[in-house]
Amino acid sequence: MPAPMHEVVIKGCEERFDLVKLWLADDEDALLAERGPEVLGVATGGQRKLDGALMDRLPKLQIIANFGVGYDSVDVTAATERGIVVTNTPGVLDNEVADTAMALLLMSVRELNRAERYLRAGRWPAEGAYPLTASTVEGRKLGVLGLGRIGETIAQRAELFGMTVGYHNRSQKDVPYRYYPTLLEMAADVDTLMIVVPGGAATHHLVDAEVLRALGPDGVVVNVGRGTVVDEQALIAALRDGTIRSAGLDVFEDEPRVPQELIDLENTVLFPHVGSASKPTRRRMGELVVANLETWFETGSARTPVN
Ligand code: NAP
Ligand code: 8YV
Predict the structure, then answer these.
(1) Is 226 a catalytic residue?
(2) pLDDT per residue over 205-234, tens digit each?
(3) 144 C-alpha to center of ligand 1: Å?
(4) Furthest CA-CA distance within the chain
(5) CATH architecture under which domain 7-90+278-299 falls
(6) DSSP state letters, 148-202
(7) Active-site residue 205, yes or no?
(8) CATH match of 94-270 with 3.10.310.40
(9) Closest to 67 measured CA to CA, from 4, 111, 110
């Protein structure tokens, strides 16, 4: 284990395996040289990059079990080349992340974060009612970029909120939502863009200035996928000059650093990557990490492999 993880993973691994805690080493290089050749599995929470160079220090490595659906900190190509299976934690967090996404959407459209700040600042008795919001959620057109497990869970919620739903993926799915073959086409047709695609090179800056312009002045962007999907500087400019209305963000390009410009803007809702961050959900994710390791070493197949 390269860095500290959820207690369920630490305990689960300690009970079943001989756990090497790399972060406790005074001399990491020496520990890797001494214990690396014995290591058969890695449990990781994504704090540390798992690249080919590190894999080469673990010549008997069979499995990398990632805590989280997104596994962008693991070089899966390098793992596959070395015959190492990579697992993630899909499914168990869909509802939690979808709830977080809806909270960002509702807060962004109805300015609920600003309204709360208004009350806390004592402005209600002094200045009267908070101004009416220009927009409302019911009737908005939602475009989901990445209609996968979490994206579909968000789509179901959005329908209940009276929104129409469309999506853009690389491939069309058998779902009752309109498919847009290109992101630009979708952005031009909807007013609310929900980003739920994975990070990595294939999705880097997919949402750029052109997409934001296409979304238009009533446009709301919500990102619960990965920060790298959005050109953050283009987003800041679009929020500043009214190209779009507002943004609700759970993920950022360089976490945990969030650009001061985003913090200073009134039309942003900013969460510190808490999409799945409840105790029950994180526990389920931890249990799935341990289950992947356990079944791999018991049966030779993992529960939720990605390669
Ligand atoms: P999933 O089921 O694999 O869905 C991902 C969707 O994205 C798929 O429908 C896929 O469809 C689409 N997609 C992938 N690459 C694309 C591309 N280049 N262009 C357009 N569409 C693309 O994954 P999930 O379980 O829903 O999770 C999605 C992501 O959410 C994770 O990878 C992670 O980054 C993020 N996440 C964030 C949090 C949080 O706390 N904020 C929590 C969990 C997950 P096609 O393959 O057809 O393109
Ligand atoms: C976690 C996530 O915050 O699952 C993911 O992809 O982004 C979140 O659930 C993260 O994985 C915790 O390390």
Answers:
(1) yes
(2) 999 999 999 999 999 999 999 999 999 999
(3) 10
(4) 68
(5) 3-Layer(aba) Sandwich (3.40)
(6) SHHHHHHHHHHHHTT-EEEEE-SS--SSSSEE-SSHHHHHHH-SEEEE----SGG
(7) no
(8) no
(9) 4
